[in-house]
Amino acid sequence: TGAISSLQRQMEIQESELRQIRSEKEMLQKQLREREIQLQAVSDKFCSLTEEQRQEEVIVMMEEENCSLQQVVTEQESQLAEQNKLISELQGTISQLQAEVVTTRLHLLEQKQAHKEIQSQAEALQHQELQTRVALERISKRFERYRNKIIQAAFSVEGSQDPSAELTDDEVLEAMQKIINERMEFQRRLKSKGSK
């Protein structure tokens, strides 16, 4: 947004300079028209003089006026050429700035779109994390219930002693393995005696 504002300010400055140059050009053209009016006035004035006076005055005045006008025309043509060149350069600069504004706006739109996509992905991940936490909590509860059942089964056997402290998972597995081994040994003995 700052880049767009800067580019727009530059465009406004360039357009202001362009308007000023065009105004100066119009002023020069107005001066030329005024010169033409003055020449016409001089011409009308000489019409009232005698032929001989008129010719002499006209020759002198025309030479002076021609010299002056030639100088003015040369200067104005030079100024107009410079102004036309500057106008062309300013128009090129304005076109370039307009292209940069368009490019910057497109870049901002792309960034907004990317931000929306990232935000959407983040929301999806948060939802997935919540679901995972719920599933983990359920699994943890089921595991704890299963662990408690194993402990009850392992230490409810006649002759076994209740654990004096909190059992580790390894101790629970060891107790469970002991029960399994005893049952397998019991089955083996029954089979050896021929019992079903």
TrEMBL record:
<dbReference type="InterPro" id="IPR052642">
    <property type="entry name" value="CC-FHA_domain"/>
</dbReference>
<protein>
    <submittedName>
        <fullName>CCD27 protein</fullName>
    </submittedName>
</protein>
<keyword id="KW-0175">Coiled coil</keyword>
<feature type="coiled-coil region">
    <location>
        <begin position="4"/>
        <end position="45"/>
    </location>
</feature>
<feature type="coiled-coil region">
    <location>
        <begin position="73"/>
        <end position="128"/>
    </location>
</feature>
